[in-house]
Amino acid sequence: MLYRLLSCVTRKATASAFYRLPVLIMKPQVYFVLGGPGAGKGTQCAMIVEKYGYTHLSAGDLLRAERGRPGSEFGELIENYIRDGKIVPVEITISLLQRAMEETMKSNKENKKFLIDGFPRNEDNLQGWNRTMDGKADVKFVLFFDCCNEVCIDRCLERGKSSGRSDDNRESLLKRIQTYVQSTKPIIELYEKQGKVHTIDASKTVEKVFVDVQKIFDKEG
């Protein structure tokens, strides 16, 4: 049953993305933003947007928005994956990212620099990106926010008091961190071997972290 459902998801998401591909006339410049849950990716991305004018696309936010969209054919599936701390099928995530980039570039052709936050999260994500976006997007580098697990958990639990997110609880966080360590860290290490990773100590205050971020973007952004 699950196999048939995922096969259906793959066909629909891939077909949807296929018909939108011609819209991507200009090649977007992509900066992957990775780190554990609570590392401060979203906060720092918002500050980068304000200072440098990039467009921030959060894979998690896009998935949550699709989950809550009335009539979404993927909403229940996304909810189940997020609640269990698992990674949503790559075809869905890339389809949402493509749509967001297309809409942004259609509205303003100068907006071609994208911070993609929380993606790629595993080998399947990376292969799906390479398969779908090869030659259609230029990955400049990976911005890696490195922060210890306990600090990340404490931050998320504090955020959960007001965020309303179903995954900001200790049980889900432990699952998400396990997924991050097992699946996402190897992707970061792969990009490190290519010389494409900039590591930031994310345990510091927001202001001090952004000082380090600015040094990177002033030089290479």
From TrEMBL:
Q: Which GO terms describe its biological process?
A: 'de novo' pyrimidine nucleobase biosynthetic process; pyrimidine nucleotide biosynthetic process
Instruction: Identify the cofactor(s).
Output: Mg(2+)
Provide any one GO MF term from the record: ATP binding
Q: How is the cofactor bound?
A: Binds 1 Mg(2+) ion per monomer.
Q: Where does a ribonucleoside 5'-phosphate bind?
A: R64, K86, I87, V88, G118, F119, P120, R121, R165, R176
Q: Where is this region: NMPbind?
A: 58-88
Q: Where in the cell is it found?
A: Cytoplasm; Nucleus
Q: Which reaction does it catalyse?
A: a ribonucleoside 5'-diphosphate + ATP = a ribonucleoside 5'-triphosphate + ADP; GTP + UDP = UTP + GDP; dTDP + GTP = dTTP + GDP; dADP + GTP = dATP + GDP
Indicate whether ATP-binding appears among the record's keywords.
yes
* Residues at which CMP binds: N125
Write down the PANTHER family for this protein, in alphabetical order: NUCLEOTIDE KINASE
Q: What is this protein called?
A: UMP-CMP kinase
Annotated organism of origin:
Acipenser oxyrinchus oxyrinchus
